[in-house]
Each structure stands twice: as C-alpha cells, then as structure tokens.
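A quick aside before the break. I want you to see a complete sequence-to-structure record at least once, exactly as it would be stored in a machine-readable document. Don't worry about memorizing anything.
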Amino acid sequence: MKSRMSDIFKSHIWSFPVHVGLLLVVLMSGCKSGSQPPANADTNAVNGVKSASTSVSDGDTGSGRSRSRSGRADTQAAPGAFDFYLLNLSWSPEFCATHEGSSECGRGLGFVVHGLWPQDASGDYPENCSDAPGPANPQAYTDIIPTVSLVEHEWQTHGTCSGLKADAYFAAARSAFTGLKIPADIGTGGDAAGVTPAQLLERFAKANAAYPAGSIALSCGNNRLTAIEVCLRKDLQPESCQGVRSCRANVIKVTPR
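That is the input. The structure line, written in tokens, reads:
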C-alpha cells in the first residue's frame, strides 16, 4: 500500500510541470491573438490614425495630406474665434504619387488648395465649430479645390470656424490662392534630384515681394515637398507666421508635374 501511494505521488509530481506548461501556452496564445488585428484590418485605424480610405475611397479628403500644425484641435471654439488663417496649398503630384486612385490625379495639377484653416497664435486651431450648411454647389469650387468631397470636408472641418457663410468662405480661399504667385520653375523637373527648403522659400519670396518675411512655410514628408503654407490675417493680408513649423529637412525632392 505504501509503495503504491509513493508511485501515485511520484506520477503526480512529474505531471504537474506538464500541466502548468500547457496552461501557460494556452494563456500566451490567447494574449497574442487578442492583441493582433485581423489580417484585413486597417492598421492605421487600429492604431488610432485615420487613413484616407476610412472615409472616402479615393482619398479625396484631407487626411491623406501632410499637415504642419503641431497644436491641438479645439472643437468647442465659437465660429470666428481665431487669430489668423493658414492657407495650405498641397503639391498635387506628390499626393498623387501615393494616392493614384483619387479623382484628383491624372489631371496634371500643380499646387491646389487643401484648405484655408483658422489658426491660433498658440499653435492650436478650431475645428468643426457648427452645423452651418455648406455651399449649395460645391462643384463650383473644384477649379481650386480638386474634388467635391474635399470641398465638403474642408467646409465642415475648417470653414464652419471662419464665421463666414459657405460661399463667402470659399470666395476667400479663392482670393487667397490667386493672390499668391507660384514660381514658374516649380515642378518642371529641375528639383527632382533635390533642393534645400531655403532655396524653395527664396523663390517664393522673390515671386511675392510684398509678402513679409516668414509668411510662407514649407511642408515636407519623407524628404519630399508636400505643400506650401501662407499665413494671412482675417482680411487675407499676409503676415509673419506664428506657431507654424516649416520643413526642417536638409534637402527635399519635388515630384515633377
């Protein structure tokens, strides 16, 4: 009897680590599978980054474009309560290099209006300030803003914070855009091998001699030009930027048109 009890005790002692090991394997497998997104999940969405494809299938909204603003969005701001406008002009050839499915692409566009954004000197900015109706005919503004969906996106996100009615807001965007002279040699292929941000800014400064120093900034991503930005007073007169960062790359490339 004593011998049998000893044998039983020994068998349980030896099997205990095996049971514990199996339990640990099961637990670890559960944790690993719970932390991984499904194979077809949008990784950006899982990580809290909204990709262009999550809202508009052809990437027409602004989420696929580079933004230079480093402050925080204020969704509680009253319409018209901001310090200045930031005019963002996206370099369409670079956008289309990674968003070929967008209806913006294949049209030989250069700089296009991404948005006219109310901005605060602190670096923060208002967004989604009201439910005011957008333009009755958004197609009327696609000569400067490349797609209807981007027109609608920009009105809801930024235009509602301007304190203007929709058509007046887009008229302001048109006026700001047409008031800036684009250097003729941008995007002709001469900068494909690389150019310094300072050299590009110098070209814009020469073409827009009336604009004060520091009123134009560059936006870049992966050492490529993505946009230029202009700081404007509420009356659309250019002013030196506050709380806006410019491209800090040593050399950037400009995707040809």
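Two observations worth writing down. Residues 65-232 form a domain with the Ribonuclease Rh; Chain A fold (CATH 3.90.730.10). The chain has six helices and six strands. We'll return to this after the break.
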